[in-house]
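User: Predict the complex.
Assistant: Input components as received:
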Amino acid sequence: MIDTQIILGFQSDNDIFYKSFYREHREDFVRYLIKVGLNKEQAIEVFHESILVLRKKAKSKTLENVSVSFKTYFYAIGKYKAYDLFKAQRKEILIIQEDIKDVAYPLIEDEDQTELIQAIKVKFKELGNSCRKLLTSFYLEGLSIKEITQREHYENENTVRAQKSRCLKQLKTLVLNGKER
Amino acid sequence: MEKKDKEKLIEKFFDGTISSEEEQELKKLIKEDASVKEAIQFQAALKKTMHEEDDMAWRKKFTEYEKEFSTVKRKEFPLIKYAAIVGFLVGLLISILWVIYRDNSTMKLYQAFYTPAENISYPLTRGDQDELVNLAFSTYEEGDYEGAIPYLKQLQAETGSIDLSLYIGSAHLALNQTSEAIYNLNPQAEVSYDFKYRFQWYLALAYLQADNASEARKVLENIVENGDYKVSAAESLLAKLP
């Protein structure tokens, strides 16, 4: 089981937490990956990607269900990422052994969204502060509507839902208008 | 199904609280209702965009951390390759120099100023005290910090008291578990007034343990300016900071 403080740290954007974590684990983790067979540059890259996996897992609240120790879990992520890298190098089909699939994707068909993603990237910046904050809280930080209501002192959950719906509509309009030009 | 219900279903899908029955229902809706499919595709793209941007920003930060890490490593062992060539004696000399360098560092200041946070929450008395309180604070006051932390956390979970993070943070400090200490001493919620500057004092010490003199300075300056705890110690520590 993973300590709640560590989970909270990975859910946050706390630079000090991440920097301390980096300093504490960098040397041993990279040494371990070099033993697995990576070179130093690859090992550092896998170390970075493994931290990102922890961050995503913490935000999607799945880190709470891990039953092994933190170190065992973290090193297992690194090992699987290293195997993925070996496979990619041998030009085999990349099999993501570490289950980090986004909850959003199994339901929808595998359509190419590159263009839409690029447009969202540009147009998102044109939204007002409050919209950007609300959408980020829900889609990136993984907060529920209830948690956003409490944290941002909204009147009630329906107010948040209505505001979120307005923000999505505004973003969609910006994206569509951008396409038409 | 009403629009509001469809939106609720989509919301549950994205916040991860959707049940398997609801997921089946949503799958059916995606096939039957183009607006639902479009809404999910748009929101999935938005979520993916945010994660990609977030990953990119953090990768940049990690690259900076790596630079810092390598620089510190080089500073700590500037002559390591040389030492390998000229042998054990030079290596020994470097180690001695390094120890001297460390001796004048923020770690030395931390060691000079750190004393465990005093228990002002539950003065231990014989008799009628809660068993968990007694266990947590007697272990803490005996200096068995490794043993005390789980009890303190359990007590915090039961009472919901943010103030207890002070003792948890102080215990982590004593065990040189710096990142856990910093995390606990930076509470997300408001602490009691009596604890406010105690937290700040131990946070400053945690930054010293982390060799982060600039953050320690900021916190200490705040104690000197506004605080009511360890003000003169903070002044004295500020004067000694590198």
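Residues 3-65 of chain B form one domain.
Let me know if you want any component modeled separately.
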